[in-house]
Amino acid sequence: MAESITLSEVAPRDGLQSIGPFVPTETKIAMVRALYEAGVRRMEVGSFVSPRAVPQMADTAEVLKAAKALPGLECTVLVPNRKGFDLALAAGADRLGFFMSVTESHNRANLNRGRADSLSELSDLVREGGRQGVKMRFNLSCAFHCPFEGVVAPRDTIDLVEQVFALDLGMEIAIADTTGNAAPDQVAAVFRHTVASWENPWAFHGHDTYGMGLANALAAYQAGVRVFDGAAGGLGGCPFAPGATGNTATEDLAWMFARMGVATGLDMPRLLTAADLCAKVPGGTPGGHLRGVPAAR
Ligand code: ZN
Q1: CA 206 to ligand 1 centroid distance, Å
Q2: 228 Cβ partners below 8 Å, 6+ apart?
Q3: Catalytic annotation present for 238
C-alpha cells in the first residue's frame, strides 16, 4: 500500500494569531470552508486563550461551530489552562491541543510561568481529557531553537518528551520548530530517537522562516513522522522575527509529498485557491513557494 500522511491545517490559528487587525469571523470561516473544499480533514481552528491576551482568537467558539458543521472535519483547538479546557469541551472540540515550551525562558515569556508549573497544570488536564475520551495532542514549542536560548540540545527535548509520554501513553505528541531555525539533522536526530522509543503518534510543526521548512519536514518524515502541520499561503508571522514568513505552507508540503508518491488527500488546484484566499488576509505575512509557480496551477 502507498504511504500516506496527514496534513493538519493551522492557518486559522497559528496563521492568524499574530496578526494585529482583527480578522472578521466571516473571513476565518471562509478560510476554513475553502480548506475543507480542498480536502483538509484536520484543522486547528482556534485557541481558547484569554481574549485580552490574544484578541484575534476571541471568536474561536464561533469559528469552531462553523467548522463542526463540515462532515468529517476533525477540529482541534488549543487550550492553555483549565478555563480553556472547559470552554473547549463545552464547545465540542474534537481534539484538544496543549502546549508548553522546551526552554524555560520561552515558557516564561509565552506562558508567564516556569516549565514545572506548566507541566503540572497540563498533567491534570491530560488525565481528565483521557478520562473523558477526547482526542489530545501535546505540543512542545521551541524544541529545536529558542529565541532566547539559541539552539536546543536534542537531549533537552527528549527529556521533556519522556515526561509528557508518561502522562498519557497514546496521546499525539507534536514537536515544534517555533522559530523556523531548526536544522534537518537536528529534526532527524530527535524524531529518530522518539519514534524508536515510544509508540505514540508523532507530529511535526514547522515554520519556514529561514527557508528550511520543507527540509525539516522531510527529515521528520524520513524518521517516521506521519502528521505535519502547515498553514495554507504560508500564513503566520513569527513574533520573534518581525517580517519573517510563517508556518511552512500547506501547499508546499502537499506538493513535496505528492511528488514523492505519498498520499495527502488534498486536491492541489483547490488547495491553491484556499492558499490564495489565506494569503490575502489583511495584515497577514504570507509565504510559501507554490503560489508563485504558474506551472503548478
Ligand atoms: Zn507555530
Answers
A1: 7
A2: 5, 6, 7, 8, 203, 204, 205, 206, 217, 220, 221, 248, 253
A3: yes
Out of 75, 142, 238, 278, the active site residue is 238
Cα(197) to centroid of ligand 1, in Å? 25
Quick check: 273 pLDDT over 90? yes
Cell digits of residue 64: 469552531
What's the number of CA atoms in the CB half-sphere (13 Å) around residue 238? 25
Residue 1 has pLDDT above 90, yes or no: no
For residue 177, the enclosing domain spans 3-296
Q: How many domains does the chain have?
A: 1
Pairing, β 145-146 against β 150-151: antiparallel
How far, in Å, from the CA of 231 to the mean position of ligand 1?
9
Q: How far is the CA of 14 from the centre of ligand 1 (A)?
A: 6
Q: Is the pLDDT of residue 293 over 60?
A: yes
The CATH number assigned to the domain holding 32 equals 3.20.20.70
> Does pTM surpass 0.90?
yes
What confidence score (pLDDT) does residue 240 get? 57
54's CB contacts (< 8 A; 6+ apart) are: 17, 47
Residue 124 C-alpha to ligand 1 middle, in angstroms? 24
Could you tell me the distance, in angstroms and rounded to a whole number, from the CA of residue 184 to the centre of ligand 1? 17
d(CA 201, CA 259): 24
* Cβ count within 10 A of residue 16: 28
Condensed to tens digits (0 to 9), the pLDDT of residues 40-85 reads 999 999 999 999 989 999 999 999 999 999 999 999 999 999 999 9
Q: Report the half-sphere exposure of 277 (CA within 13 A, side-chain side).
A: 22
Q: What is the DSSP string of 151-204?
A: EPPHHHHHHHHHHHHTT-TT-EEEEEESSS---HHHHHHHHHHHHHH--S-EEE
